[in-house]
Amino acid sequence: MAIVAGVDFGTLSVRVSIVDSERGLLASSLAEYPLHRKREDPDFATQSHEDHMRALAQATRQAVAAADVSGEQVESIALDTTGSSVIPVGKDLVPLDDYYLWCDHRAKQEAALITELARLEKLEAIQWCGGVYSSEWGFAKLLHWLRHNPEKRAQFVSAFEHCDMVAATLCGITDAKRVKRSICAMGHKWMWNASLAGLPPESFLAKVDPLLAGVREKLEGEYATSDTIAGALSPLWAEKLGLRAGIPIPVGAFDAHWDAIGAGARQGDVVNVVGTSTCIIAYAAEAQLIPGVCGVVPGSVHPQFTGIEAGLSATGDIFSAIARRAGTTVENLSRGLESYRAGQTGLLRMTWDNGDRTVLVNPNLGGITLGWNLQHTAQDELFAAIEGTAFHTRVILDRMAEYGAPTHRVINGGGIPQNNAVLNQVYANILGRPVLVPSSKVTGLGSAIFAFLAAGTFASIDEAQTKICPAHVVFEPQPETQEIYYELFELYRKLYFNFGRQGDGESFADVLPKLIKLARTA
Length: 522
What we know:
By secondary structure, the protein is of the alpha+beta class. Helix content is 36%, strand content 20%.
């Protein structure tokens, strides 16, 4: 028997779960931190490392107390975070600025520049992240920071993903070269690829912008999967967390990847981690390159398999925005949605309110709702938005299947599905296959599973999943919805590619980018 702590850093809070290898989840607690936005710049989204660490200490102490165990009994702690959330650091790993959060899209120009040069130079690494580099990813964000902070460039030592920065802090590591970097984070967001000698070559990065000259060397170090130990909990942070100094901390990963493990995903499954955005996670023994899919990385989700990541740039955020504009809450607006029938609203909602992460990888898009009349309500739009996110998910699953990664089971994980039966049923109907939902919360269970591996409690991930992961509630497709959703999906696909595909002169692809540009000019 062993007790571990699983940590999950989300967009607005950190959750710490205390898990027993025999009794399962004992207790969990969360602590919030602020998200910094700017009304005049909707692409701006940052958070403070200090706020994150303060919240982690608070949540850990609260969780241990709620579990009614001693901090001395906790044998390991593991953590996952949002990504790509990037922080530049100076000497001794002191932050030079806040994190560029995963949903910060200021680096659009930098991402487009990286994509353009990578295609021109036929950089093989770009193909492993879908053929398009995103403004949500590491090199684009780092270049944006270097361009906009000339007074801090001389202090710049390195940059880290959130999961690696937190692990290094907990271990008391102050030398950037000694920090173990997550293959999950660096493979999916920084074009790191073991078969391609790691990061993109210095010659390529310097050609993107001279400000990136020398950055490759500053990002060097040990790159590892999450079955590797990042270090041991330092006395300083042991005291702050209320745990025992010296316990092992494995290399971290992204929240969605470990949520998939916690949701019980096996080879051939696809997990929709549905929260403020949606991350779509799968892993396979072998996987070929998939155009538009933002990462095919060996060892990223499961150390022994190839991880595949895709997703929607906003899901819960869209639902919240619809409710906010109506002066209510998503909970209130959702009452009665169970009586809605497939397609009854007459609305078709393109859920691009925060751009497109997969498969177009186009941040210069905005939401579209077609079919309005004078009688439509905010509740109608909410139902259409649920359908829209499901249609978008189907586009992604179809692309994965086309390139050799078919879906055998769909698991809806994340915070929303366990509280929204309507969403799960709509997804089952639109995807045309059963949707499984964990019967209890799994946030932090993936972290706990890797903490158990670090502590030596279980011999494999499969063994830990069998013992720890909850059973599933199953939503079967409703036959009476299939015909109408087939017709609606064909319309959705037509709109999706004609409005969203960049560089297609015969489509409407210039409409939404021009609207965004004109709004900013005004």
